[in-house]
Write a structure and sequence with these properties.
Layout: H1 3-16, H2 24-49, E1 64-70, H3 76-83, E2 101-107, E3 110-116, H4 131-138, E4 143-149, H5 155-165, E5 168-170, E6 177-181, E7 187-191, H6 199-208, E8 214-218, H7 224-232, E9 236-245, H8 252-264, E10 272-274, H9 283-292, E11 295-300, E12 308-316, H10 321-328, H11 332-335, E13 338-342, E14 350-352, E15 363-367
Helix pairs in contact: 1-2, 2-6, 2-7
The structure holds guanosine-5'-triphosphate and magnesium ion (MG).
């Protein structure tokens, strides 16, 4: 029996098993066996075909990396050229871009690397065109800019689906799960929150992965799939912005109707941006990219000097004064006693400890 046949057999078994509390462990076992077989088969295929992101992936640079991904001819290269200093060839025929091309978007002092990828079609994840290589390059990015033509908005779903098949989850928080192999005592299940799955079921899942002695700590309420993902470790969580391009090619009434239809059933309207790469200045898209990457700019100043507004420190939202010190120089954190903060502090120049969480556009003066 081939792996594919075995997966099919297990999927049939899963469909036939009644879903209730009494069958929870059995269902979890079948799901886990399917996950395991699928990941083994994917690994084997990747080895055989030598799939790599060669020619499609570029080294990460700057404060964060975004990729432009979508069907051919939706305007990805036009967007890259407009957002950055890059010159990626654009043309009105499909598959104009054949390799990854990069540019740097400078916004609020941040340098955001944008990578233009070749267009992909439905079926990319299972090997249509150069789809697999493109999806594999997309995995490295912090954020996906999923581009669709406003006249074919449903093509966004095709791309989301392909990314999902390639193991990339969009705009979802990664559940916090820690798994450690131990030397003895079997399987220990710990949880800081209430779980729907029983300890017995969770332990069975680990056993199928051939973990005999291990400790699993769950910091979130999780399902079988999430535990499997954490053990297999081949899933990627990334942010996504859905960019509907070529708004100039339809009338303003058609645009209103299209927006209403697209946003009607979404929970995350903030992640949808409507642009004309040909006509707009793309300010809204730039600010959405910056805010969804959860970056903040923090300015530094020296004693009795004005702050340096030209070269802010770019930090992840939630960063502390200590993180800011590290970004300047790795030795700075141990040398700094406290910092004076202007902006989010209670009063200008308030002295705050290294644990203080900074906000966008704060000004700091490090004191030794
Ligand atoms: N009307 C209009 N045309 C656009 C817009 N953006 C891009 N185009 C045109 O659409 C065609 C395709 O644009 P590209 O930027 O090459 O598209 P792409 O997504 O990079 O295509 P591939 O590299 O083939 O995947 C070109 O003729 C562009 O001039 C837009 O906002 N409005
Ligand atoms: Mg292109």
């Amino acid at each position: 029996m081939t792996t594919e046949e075995r997966i099919e057999e297990l999927e049939e078994k899963l469909a036939k098993t009644p879903k209730n509390k009494g069958t929870e462990t059995d269902l979890a076992k079948i799901k886990t066996q399917i996950s395991l077989l699928k990941s083994q088969s994917a690994q084997r295929k990747a080895k055989k075909t030598g799939i790599s992101a060669y020619g499609y992936s570029l080294r990460k640079k700057g404060d964060a990396t975004c990729v432009l991904i979508g069907n051919p001819s939706v305007g990805k290269s036009t967007l890259l050229n407009k957002l950055t200093n890059a010159h990626s060839a654009t043309a009105d025929y499909e598959f104009t871009t054949l390799f990854a091309i990069q540019g740097m978007l400078k916004y609020e002092g941040a340098k955001i690397q944008i990578i233009d990828l070749p267009g992909i079609l439905g079926g990319a994840a299972s090997g249509t065109g150069r789809g697999k290589e493109v999806l594999s390059a997309a995995r490295n990015a912090d954020m996906m800019l999923i581009v669709a033509d406003i006249k074919k908005p449903e093509s966004k779903e095709v791309i989301v689906d392909e990314l999902k098949k390639a193991g990339i989850y969009l705009n979802k928080a990664e559940p916090s799960i820690s798994i450690k192999k131990t030397i003895k005592n079997g399987i220990l299940v710990k949880s800081t929150v209430k779980q729907k799955l029983t300890r017995k079921t969770i332990a069975e899942i680990l056993r199928i992965h051939k973990l005999v002695n291990a400790e699993i700590i769950l910091y979130d309420t999780v399902n079988v799939e999430q535990i499997n993902d954490a053990i297999i470790g081949n899933k990627k969580y990334a942010g996504a912005i859905y960019v509907y391009n070529k708004t100039d090619s339809i009338s303003s009434q058609e645009l209103l109707d299209a927006k209403e239809k697209i946003l009607k059933n979404t929970f995350d309207a903030d992640n949808h941006v409507f642009v004309s790469a040909a006509k707009d200045n793309l300010d809204e898209l730039k600010s959405t990219i910056f805010s969804r990457l959860k970056l903040i700019s923090v300015y530094t100043k020296k004693t009795n000097k004005k702050p340096d507004l030209e070269n802010p420190l770019i930090l992840k939202k939630g960063s502390t004064i200590k993180d800011a010190c590290f970004k300047i120089h790795k030795d700075f954190a141990s040398k700094t006693a406290y910092a004076k903060v202007w902006g989010s502090s209670r009063y200008p120049g308030q002295k705050l400890s290294l644990k203080y969480k900074l906000h966008h556009k704060d000004i700091i003066e490090l004191c030794f």
